[in-house]
Design goal:
mainly beta, OB fold (Dihydrolipoamide Acetyltransferase, E2P), 6 strands, globular
Length: about 140
C-alpha cells in the first residue's frame, strides 16, 4: 500500500486553538496552565486577523495574529496573550488577507527580554489560508 504524506493533510488534523485558551496565559505567564502547556511547541491552527509586520509587495513574511479585525498593537496595546507574532517558515511568505485567516504552525512561548515577567506567543507558520467561517473571538 502506498501512503502519501501531505503537509495540507497534516495541517487539517492539527487541533484548532481558541483565543479563550490562549488568554489563560495572562493569569500565570511564567507558569502557564496545563491547558496552555499542552499546545506549546506542537502543530496547531489558530483563526484570527492579520496585522502585517513586514511587507514585500503584497506578500507578508511576518505578521501579528489577533482575535479582532483592525486591531492595533500600539495604542492601547492588547494583552500579550491575545497577540501571536507569526513568522513564515523557512524564509517563506504568504499573501496578506484583510479578512479572517486560519494559520497552521508551531506555537511557542517567548520571554520578553526587557521584562522578565512578560511572555508572548510566537508561531512558526507553515501555511495561512482564508478562514472558512467567521470566528467567535473567545470560544
Amino acid at each position: 500500500m502506498l501512503v502519501l504524506w501531505s503537509a495540507t493533510a497534516q495541517a487539517l488534523s492539527d487541533p484548532e486553538v481558541p483565543w479563550k485558551t490562549l488568554g489563560r496565559l495572562a493569569f500565570r505567564p511564567s507558569n502557564p496552565p496545563d491547558e496552555v502547556r499542552r499546545i506549546l511547541n506542537k502543530p496547531v491552527q489558530v483563526i484570527g486577523f492579520m496585522m502585517a509586520d513586514e511587507f514585500n509587495s503584497d506578500e507578508v513574511t511576518e505578521f501579528f495574529l489577533m482575535p479582532v479585525s483592525r486591531g492595533c498593537p500600539h495604542v492601547p496595546p492588547p494583552p500579550p496573550s491575545y497577540v501571536i507574532h507569526a513568522k513564515m517558515k523557512a524564509s517563506g511568505s504568504t499573501q496578506f488577507h484583510a479578512g479572517a485567516v486560519k494559520v497552521h504552525g508551531v506555537l511557542s512561548l517567548t520571554k520578553n527580554s526587557e521584562n522578565e515577567f512578560a511572555y508572548s506567543y510566537e508561531m512558526i507558520a507553515d501555511s495561512v489560508e482564508a478562514a472558512p467561517k467567521s470566528i467567535d473571538h473567545f470560544d
